[in-house]
Description:
By secondary structure, the protein is an alpha+beta fold. The protein is built from 11 helices and 18 strands. Strands 1, 2, 3, 4, 5, 6, 7, 10, 11, 13 and 16 form an 11-stranded mixed β-sheet that branches.
Amino acid sequence: MTGVLMSREWLPADWAQGRYIARIRTAEGPTPVLVENGIAYDMSDVAPTVSQLIDALPVSVSRGVALGALTELDGELLSPVDLQCVKACGVTFALSAIERVIEERARGDAGAAMAIRERLESRIGGSIRSVVPGSGEAAELKAALIADGLWSQYLEVAIGPDAEVFTKAPILSTVGGGAPIGVRSDSGWNNPEPEIVLIVDGRGAAVGATLGNDVNLRDFEGRSALLLGKAKDNNASCSLGPLIRLFDETFSVDDVRNAEVTLLIEGPEGYRLDGVSSMSQISRDPLDLVRQTLSEHQYPDGFALFLGTLFAPVQDRDESGRGFTHKVGDIVSISTPTLGTLVNEVVTSRDAAPWAFGVAALMQNLAERGLLAKAGEALPA
């Protein structure tokens, strides 16, 4: 796969309703697009970046240039964010907490994980699913697990008062639907992480959502939590899209809270893996995760926030007891009816196209197109 045009199969079930933001690459350069009633509008003369377009909401599509139906967009589909920081929350579901403890105890060895998994699930599987993070009950569970020698730093962020929030990727480095997604060439145990991603504006308000793949290297993070940066932030290792759906009367944060996110992995050798992540089982409310991200920090260009996943694949692929890991050529599809489908093909980060279009390149492109001056005139102070 390479970057492609919008596919009808990727669109939300009710794509002709509601409001969406897309980002495409035209012959001139990256272009923010606002979609209303299924019609796309080039908004670059009003807001040359998606970050600025979001902060200008509710802006009328009448200020843009009509491009036609969303399904007929003429331009390469890009990640729908640009200047926003890309943040992520980890261990927000009970199952992911258990799996992170397994990684830690197995020291990144997939073959050693099965016995550890059985012991942990028998001891804490039920109680950790029902406990409220930061509560007195959580403190009692922590004390019991410490006494059993089962406590972990991952359980601290699963049931303690503070959520895990980290930076997933530099701005402008994310890839969109149809683009290759990268896994480090020296990783032998890894998986996709299908997630809903909240989009937050420069004032700290959640304004919409999209889908994301927070690729994870289980062997790297399992060896040491201090390798989180290397496990998470690699070339082409974060995908978003295909669209940002804005909150309105057709879609709200409650739809995020109740979403069922499905995952399909289709391997080049015929392997198939299906999974589902039910947002109703999240341990921390999405808006509380936004609040914790904003605690004593500002994001003037807004941010995208991965909410975490329930999905942790343990289905064997090649050898019994070795679980799942990616192969080059895997097609990963992440879906939910209200947000559509995000599709990417797995390559190594080494073989993915190098990230070469950074902030300086974007500013130069916008200046050459005369868009920075226009935006200064069109946007409110």
